[in-house]
Amino acid sequence: MALLEVRNVTRRFGDFVAVDDLSFNVEAGEFFTLLGPSGCGKTTLLRMIAGFDLPDAGAILLDGVDLAQRPPEARPVRTVFQSYALFPHMSVEGNVAFPLQMARTRARDIAANVAAALAKVRLTGFGRRYPHELSGGQKQRVAIARALVTHPAVLLLDEPLAALDAKLREEMQIELIHLQKDVGITFIYVTHDQTEALTLSQRIAVMNQGHIEQLDEPSRIYSAPKTRFVADFIGTCNLLEGSAVASTEGFLVLDIPDLGQVRAAASGSFPAGTAGAIALRPEKIRLGTSLPPAPEENRFGGTVSDLLYMGDVTVYVLTTPRGRKIEALLANSAAGRTKFFEVGDAVELAWPIDAGHVIA
Ligand SMILES: Nc1ncnc2c1ncn2[C@@H]1O[C@H](COP(=O)(O)OP(=O)(O)OP(=O)(O)O)[C@@H](O)[C@H]1O
Ligand SMILES: [Mg+2]
């Protein structure tokens, strides 16, 4: 049985449906992420799991027990907020001890539990400091210690790294992965940052307008997006939309209006004329002034119309003779190499037919 079950949950604000008949399960010990754009209902969903808000329809079950009648403090669920929400007039120890005092834990046990929670987030020795004497990352760790100190079964994290700069964010991501493994509790993590979701999660639910578009492992979300929304939201993706010309066992030919005919590996049959799209990641494309032929490839000519040097990689925007723009990405692996082509260069681009993913 799943640890947490969200079953057909709906939440309306007036006529607006913020969470729309949404269902999913989270397993014990899992790092599960809700990923989606601003306003798609992520925080609303977390608030209902925590018990700060109630669904208009549906149920939330923990270990098979409906939580509807249980107030937040009676749920083995704690939340870490983006703003940390530390008490500024309390020391680090005071902040972490607070939930234990509320639960009327004995003084002796409080000290031991606070020390253990601070050790888990590597803040031993920081107990006497006040929030204003801490860095953003340290504040975040105090917030996590305070959430862990009551040993919840589920930790909800609502964009906990959003306020940090890129470097610290990356450090905290690595720490979160370790911390989650060490403490072994279930994390439900909310973010609108796709890279963060791909890095951290065991499974990701991609949300859009109150519903789940796709629930899968990160590698599947990235390489086999089920919908246009997912393809578009997760990283850069060339979305080649057209209509089916022919389909045989194993592959499909699509006519892309401003490009030409493109073959893609596909299961199922597509009657001629069916609308379809191929999601093609920029790093799957080969580029060259004249490419050696390879079997089972799509190949087009093009001109470099823009390039974006990004340090380790360069993105090339290519325009085909019929005016289609396609993005390709090449690693600048050779020492000191910043680009392979200039704007205006004529190039050939090619990708294997199984590199593109068909979205019906
Ligand atoms: N109390 C409320 N009253 C009315 N509308 C609300 C209320 N809470 C949330 N909403 C609306 O519900 C939708 C979902 O809000 P929610 O806060 O869950 O989004 P989110 O996915 O967390 O977005 P973000 O990434 O910006 O935090 C939004 O359109 C929001 O305006
Ligand atoms: Mg939110």
Describe the structure.
With 360 residues, the chain is of the alpha+beta class. It has two domains: 4-232, 3-Layer(aba) Sandwich (Rossmann fold), CATH 3.40.50.300; 236-359, OB fold (Dihydrolipoamide Acetyltransferase, E2P), CATH 2.40.50. It is built from eight helices and 20 strands. The protein has helices at residues 42-50, 92-102, 107-120, 136-148, 166-183, 194-200, 218-223, 228-233; strands at residues 4-13, 16-26, 31-35, 57-62, 65-66, 77-80, 154-158, 186-191, 203-208, 211-216, 238-248, 251-256, 260-265, 275-280, 286-288, 297-309, 313-319, 325-331, 346-352, 357-359. Strands 6-7-8-3-9-10 form a six-stranded mixed beta sheet, with helices on both faces. α2 (92-102) packs parallel to α4 and α3 packs across α4 (136-148). The longest helix has 18 residues, at 166-183. It is globular and about 75 Å long. The model has no long low-confidence stretch (mean pLDDT 92). The structure holds adenosine-5'-triphosphate and magnesium ion. Adenosine-5'-triphosphate (ATP) binds at residues 13, 18, 36, 38-44, 192.
What is the general shape? Answer: globular
Structural category = alpha+beta
How much is the average pLDDT? 92
- Name the bound molecules: adenosine-5'-triphosphate, magnesium ion
What is the helical fraction, as a range of percent? 10-25%
Largest sheet: 6 strands, mixed
Q: What would CATH call the architecture of the largest domain? A: 3-Layer(aba) Sandwich
Total strands: 20
CATH class membership of the largest domain: Alpha Beta
What is the assigned CATH homologous superfamily of the largest domain? P-loop containing nucleotide triphosphate hydrolases
Distance between the termini: 33 Å
Low-confidence stretches: none
Query: In DSSP terms, counting alpha (H) and pi (I) runs of 4 or more, how many helices?
Result: 8
CATH T-level topology of the largest domain: Rossmann fold
Main sheet: strand order: 6-7-8-3-9-10
